[in-house]
Amino acid sequence: MKPNPSSRRDFLKAGALALGGLTLTDVLAARAASSEPKRDTSVILLYLHGGPSHLETYDLKPDAPEAYRSVFKPIRTNVSGIDICEHFPRQAKIADKFSLIRSLNHDVNIHSDGGIVVLTGKRPAVLDPLSQSKSEHPDFGSIASFVRSAHRDAMPPYVALPQAPYMTRPTYLGHQHGAFAVGDPSTPLFQPPFIALNRDPNRLDDRKKLLGDLDKLRRDLDATGKLTTSDTHTRQAFELLASRTVAEAFDLSRESDKTRDRYGRHAWGQSCLLARRLAAAGTAVVSLYINTPKYGDEFTNWDDHIQNAGRPGHFAGFMKTRLPYLDESLSALIEDIYTRGLDQQILVVVTGEFGRTPRLSTNASGTGRDHWPQAYSALVSGGGLKMGQVVGATNSRGEFPSQKPYSPFDLLATVYRHLGIDQHRMLYDATSKPVAVLPDGEVIAELG
């Protein structure tokens, strides 16, 4: 059968798919560099960029003075003694399936630099007050890509939905270990090219022919002694496109309308659903970083100053818009993971780069809270950890940890243990200087 020109173009486009500059060839090259045994464990990170207020989410202080207490009311959960925000009713029903860490803290109050601390486990050499700095070390997703060996079904090791955090880079590990960003799965046109290649019989024939052409090229190059590692990775990239497991994992149309509706037909919901599919299929790290202007800052950005990005008004109004989306998608993700028996395999982590100032700020523009890394909260679910508990506490005004203070390095140590990665393993930077995966931090003991 003669290949359809448009199918051939789609196939070649898929072979060079590069959102954020990462190609499938890069992904295969990353796998070849790995040397450690693979573990079928995964982490899904919901990164709440901008720093959500701990006082309006998971650490409300209803008895604090008016200038400090949460603007929302706490509600009881299905675990005695655990209260959360009134705008989290769905999470309140499944508190036995997550744990809260209320005593996280560090000392970097800049968005990009705080994100670097939280995602890489290393402080920036120079803090950037304009919040535009880039990481000098790879984040934990890139490290997982580098360390974990090839997945038997060719799943990409590190996927970002819809986009990768702007402040982190694979740096000295190499471009091929960056996040594989595939766009917003809630959009009607979302369909990575390799999905179409597996749905259409004609395109399957095109794929077979192209793979045959690559076989001939490989034989010719091998005969002349000109076969290179790059050629091998290119061919493997096309073989990845032939993986039905990869295509099916990315194909949200395989989910029922009921399931897709339960997660929510928005960026957070469909990204959470796709993240579950990818993690279940073997992707090591899936990060959700949703900061898309088309949704408006009130939906995507947790940076709730008195006035930020042209948003004058009371910050509670913006959070009332934002919190239900998070509640809907996160609760669906957690329930789905447990219902499918994936709670040992998949660890869900929800965190921002810091919290917000305990004392409210009010002026003619409105009311808000500023940056506050001295205390913030994170949620974890699954991963075979102990659920249904609160780890640590802050003082009566939510200012500082008062019990069991933990750092983002401790949370990362817990994540690395789940991924089967030795945090003390040495990597080598661009100058061949040894750098530990995670120089500081210990696994959070209360989580098991």
What layout of secondary structure does this protein have?
Blueprint: H1 5-15, H2 24-32, E1 42-47, E2 74-76, E3 83-85, H3 89-92, E4 99-104, H4 111-120, H5 140-147, E5 158-162, E6 180-181, H6 193-199, H7 201-224, H8 229-241, H9 244-250, H10 257-263, H11 267-281, E7 285-289, H12 297-300, E8 313-314, H13 315-339, E9 346-351, E10 355-356, E11 361-363, E12 366-368, E13 371-372, E14 376-382, E15 390-391, E16 393-394, E17 401-403, H14 408-419, E18 426-428, E19 434-436
Parallel strand pairs: 1-7, 1-9, 4-15, 5-6, 5-7, 8-12
Antiparallel strand pairs: 2-3, 4-14, 9-14, 10-13, 11-12, 16-17, 18-19
Task: Write out key terms for the chains shown.
single chain; 448 residues; alpha/beta; Alkaline Phosphatase, subunit A; 14 helices
Concise structural overview:
This protein has helices at residues 5-15, 24-32, 89-92, 111-120, 140-147, 193-199, 201-224, 229-241, 244-250, 257-263, 267-281, 297-300, 315-339, 408-419, and strands at residues 42-47, 74-76, 83-85, 99-104, 158-162, 180-181, 285-289, 313-314, 346-351, 355-356, 361-363, 366-368, 371-372, 376-382, 390-391, 393-394, 401-403, 426-428, 434-436. By secondary structure, the protein is α/β, with parallel strands linked by helices.
Give a verbal description of the structure.
- With 448 residues, the protein is an alpha/beta fold.
- The protein has a single domain, classed as Alkaline Phosphatase, subunit A (3-Layer(aba) Sandwich), CATH 3.40.720.
- The chain is built from 14 helices and 19 strands.
- The chain has helices at 5-15, 24-32, 89-92, 111-120, 140-147, 193-199, 201-224, 229-241, 244-250, 257-263, 267-281, 297-300, 315-339, 408-419, and strands at 42-47, 74-76, 83-85, 99-104, 158-162, 180-181, 285-289, 313-314, 346-351, 355-356, 361-363, 366-368, 371-372, 376-382, 390-391, 393-394, 401-403, 426-428, 434-436.
- The chain has an eight-stranded mixed beta sheet, with helices on both faces.
- A hairpin with a 2-residue loop joins strand 11 (361-363) and strand 12.
- The radius of gyration is 23 Å and the shape is globular.
- Residues 1-21 have low confidence and may be disordered.
